[in-house]
Amino acid sequence: METLPNITHKILEAAKKVGYRSHEGVAGTFFQIDHKVVASKINEMFKGKLEVLDTRDAIKKYRWVSKLLWKFVDKDKDTFTRSVYSAEKSNWENVAGYFIRILPNSEVTFPIQSCIVLAKQDSTQRVHNIIVAEKGSRANIITGCTIHPDITSGQHLGISEFLIKENASLNFTMIHNWASNTDVKPRSAAIIEENGRFVSNYICTSPVKDLQMHPKITCKGKNSSTRISSIIYAQKGSRIDIGSGVELFGENSSAEIISRTIAKENSQVMVKGSIHGKGKNSRGYLECKGILLDDTSFIHAIPELIGSRSDIDLSHEAAVGKINEDAIIYLMTRGLNEEEARSLLISGFLDVDILGLPENLATEIKQYIKKTAKAY
Amino acid sequence: MSTKESSLPILKVENLSIEIGKKKLLENVSFEIPKGRSCALFGPNGSGKTSLLMTLAGVPKYKLTGGRILFDGKDITNLSIEERIKLGLGIAFQQPPEITGVKLRDIVKICCGKKLNEPLSANILETVKRFNLLEFLDRDINKDFSGGEKKRAEVLQLILMRPKLMLLDEPDSGVDLESLKFLSKEIENYLTKANASALIVTHHGDILEYIKVDSAFILMNGRIYCHAEPQKILKDIKERGYSACRLCRHPCI
């Protein structure tokens, strides 16, 4: 793998765990350590189709970028957003992030990768990302956020704002790998225009002290659609509060929210999902499933459907409980022992196929989940 | 194999009694199946047929309160499911569960003793194709499968496991005539080639047209009431109903 300056072996190993790979295999790379951007570049073959910049550089390059900042996420939402906003106002001291733009009608066939590493003990990392999928564009972004293996605690505040324009399609997969004493507060929002599609996947299978994220998606345009999936394996006392909210404004707009959660070892997970059908013939489906592996943990699933007109169609499915015992028995009658059967069921429950990723990426993420969730 | 070993029945059940909670499901059930031979099991709904098969497979919720089970001469009464499967027992479920995220492909690999990251060989794929299940390989096992498709998947798995004794729980229920013929022939071919045995639960006996079954018995209210040739028993049931069988009492082993 090529070496990037300022990336030590330990940081590189941590980055690989959240999907980072050689630049040769990707369309673009962004790498940030604390608030220092060590790489923001594109693969030559995608020149003219893609831009990957430090957000600060993008603001200098394009005036309109500064107008996008805080357009979709409310800067006064809470103390964490205000903290990032305040840092930006102090000349972007102690805040950085990526600007990814897929140019009009461009199809970026390799994944675009980003990696953000928290490397300073007990520090607060502030990130503000802007992602624009221009009209008719198609791309996949994989972003990993993680912590230096030698540090045990810190805080990550991440703001991500997405604009998916007319006829654009964007797949965005975020993998988080933290330490058990990290405080993580991503705040994100997306606007999807006519015929646009936004697929957002979130995976966190490592312990975390406190993770709270509630992305807001607005299907603004006609026929706009979104699918938001999350795979959470909460372990070792993790506190996780996660949930997406979708507003369906556009005629025939649609949303799916799928979440799969496993909790063990005194972990507490709140999984919310909300779909509000406001547009004509809008449709939404919400699926919230959780498995508790022991009696010390807690999963609170809160599906919410709100209809504002008579022609909408919203439905949900929610279930929290134990691993299906009949399924364990069935797998044992095929030759697995009990532990192998449980492990396979956990692996199946955290099924990467729900993310709708291209095959090669799906295989990669599957391997990651198997390793971190110690699944079969 | 010595003469003594080859004369041992593949399955011998002695005075088996089981219960779930306080409910008795089987009472003093005794029978045996010779090696290389097959046996049919009839009985009204709720008589304990599935409970018997599940007990033979070692499903722990069925509590043994008496008797023992000998498989190929070995006492398996206290063995786990895993241990019994390793010895050569295999079971096709009447209502197999749907499992999210576990694909038919995964199950096929497990049945063949392969690891999940190993590819399926051309031979196995050919078998899957013969069962008309190629397009199901990457689907969640049994999820949205029709009744017939579930049965096909069950029999496919069993054949791939190559058991000495197949426990088949209503392999013919909910299956169209063509599929029934196909599945029966596959089972019969396997039993003949492997000199294996089967215990087949069936209500209507349609499957017996294609599989050579030497004997049959009736289970009612957890007890065996009849043991005779399968066609004779079927005729009796059709003509006189199950309740009449209580009076008949053909001797059981």
Give a written overview of the molecule.
The complex is a heterodimer of chains A (376) and B (253). Chain A is an alpha/beta fold and 376 residues long. In chain A, 18% of the residues lie in helices and 45% in strands. Chain A has seven helices and 20 strands. In chain A, the strands form two sheets. Chain A has a ten-stranded mixed sheet with strand order 2-1-5-7-9-11-14-16-18-20, covered by helices on one side. In chain A, strands 3, 4, 6, 8, 10, 12, 13, 15, 17 and 19 form a ten-stranded mixed sheet that branches. In chain A, helix 5 crosses helix 6 (338-349). The two termini of chain A are 28 Å apart. The model of chain A has no long low-confidence stretch (mean pLDDT 93). With 253 residues, chain B is of the alpha/beta class. In chain B, the strands form two sheets. A six-stranded mixed sheet of chain B has the order 6-7-8-3-9-10, with helices on both faces. Chain B has a four-stranded antiparallel sheet with strand order 2-1-4-5, with helices on one face. In chain B, helix 4 (104-111) runs parallel beside helix 6 (147-161) and helix 6 runs parallel beside helix 7 (177-194). Chain B is globular. Chain B starts with a helix and ends in a 5-residue tail after the last helix. The mean pLDDT of chain B is 91. At the A-B interface, helix 5 and helix 6 of A face helix 3 and helix 4 of B.
Mind sketching the topology for me?
The complex is a heterodimer of chains A (376) and B (253).
Chain A: H1 9-17, E1 28-33, E2 36-42, E3 50-54, H2 55-61, H3 63-68, H4 79-89, E4 98-102, E5 112-118, E6 124-133, E7 138-147, E8 153-164, E9 169-177, E10 181-192, E11 197-204, E12 210-213, E13 216-219, E14 225-234, E15 239-248, E16 254-263, E17 268-277, E18 283-292, E19 298-307, E20 313-321, H5 325-332, H6 338-349, H7 359-372
Parallel strand pairs in A: 1-5, 4-6, 5-7, 6-8, 7-9, 8-10, 9-11, 10-12, 10-13, 11-14, 12-15, 13-15, 14-16, 15-17, 16-18, 17-19, 18-20
Antiparallel strand pairs in A: 1-2, 3-4
Chain B: H1 3-7, E1 11-20, E2 23-33, E3 38-42, H2 49-57, E4 63-71, E5 74-75, H3 81-87, E6 89-92, H4 104-111, H5 122-130, H6 147-161, E7 165-169, H7 177-194, E8 197-201, E9 215-220, E10 223-228, H8 230-248
Parallel strand pairs in B: 3-8, 3-9, 6-7, 7-8
Antiparallel strand pairs in B: 1-2, 1-4, 4-5, 9-10
Helix pairs in contact in B: 4-6, 6-7
